[in-house]
Structure to design on (264 residues):
């Protein structure tokens, strides 16, 4: 690093320190930092636009439909919402009308689908009220929270973090993001279903969520400062189950194009 860029870096860091806030995704580096190699920014296509939605973080809510909470062995009436994350590069973009090859992951013998509505944020903050929360949502997509269930359960049983069951490569297939304006509002009801090889497996309604998208954003923002580019997988209904190589997944949420995968 020459003296001039060193000075520039110091100035940028000082400016950041004075402002008292970190720039999203570049807390300690100027925007044009020289790097020895490049790291791809994960992004998702936006319907009706040539722009793409840059992904900062993937949050997921657990057990957000009562019947699914029961099938996972918990009491849906008492449990506050809990969250976990997947790395941003776990995204697998799937174009509408296509069937994407999805790699069966290593280490598991019980690989599960979880069909979910995904909310994508263009605004963030801390301690956001449920009343303000939907103003943070840029749009929605259909997504799958793919899960190595045996590893998730095994780690849970040992009281270890179940990251290995949830936060692996390609574990977040997703369709394109539909801006709220295109959808004509925020989806609060409507069918959500998933078929494997043409046979219905999950079949529920978005209105059966225990915590609404607005409530999820409010709760999350008490634990984390949310930022533009964060996306939230809003939980799956009951009847999660396994897939094996060769299986075809077709999933649906009213108002969004279906998401199709072939497990390979
Ligand atoms: Mn899930």
């Amino acid at each position: 690093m020459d003296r001039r860029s060193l000075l520039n870096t110091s100035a940028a860091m000082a400016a950041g320190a004075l402002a008292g806030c970190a720039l999203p995704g570049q807390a300690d580096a100027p925007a044009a930092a020289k790097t020895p190699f490049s790291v791809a920014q994960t992004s998702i296509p936006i319907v009706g636009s040539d722009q793409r939605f840059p992904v900062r973080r993937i949050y997921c809510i657990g057990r957000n439909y009562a019947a699914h909470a029961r099938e996972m062995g918990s009491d849906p009436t008492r449990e506050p919402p809990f969250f976990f994350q997947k790395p941003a590069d776990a995204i697998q973009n799937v174009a509408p009308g296509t069937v994407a090859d999805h790699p069966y992951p290593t280490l598991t013998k019980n690989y599960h689908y979880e069909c979910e509505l995904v909310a994508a944020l263009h605004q963030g903050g801390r301690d956001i009220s449920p009343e303000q929360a939907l103003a943070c949502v840029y749009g929605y997509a259909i997504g799958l929270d793919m899960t190595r269930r045996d590893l998730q359960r095994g780690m849970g049983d040992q009281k270890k973090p179940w990251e290995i069951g949830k936060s692996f490569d390609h574990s977040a297939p997703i369709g394109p993001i539909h801006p709220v304006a295109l959808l004509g509002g925020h989806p609060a009801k409507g069918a959500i279903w998933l078929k494997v090889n043409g046979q219905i497996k999950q079949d529920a309604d978005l209105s059966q969520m225990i915590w609404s998208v607005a409530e999820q954003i409010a709760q999350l923002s008490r634990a984390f400062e949310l930022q533009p580019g964060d996306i939230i997988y809003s939980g799956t209904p009951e009847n999660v189950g396994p897939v094996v190589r060769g299986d075809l997944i077709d999933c649906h949420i009213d108002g969004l194009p279906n998401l199709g995968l072939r497990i390979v």
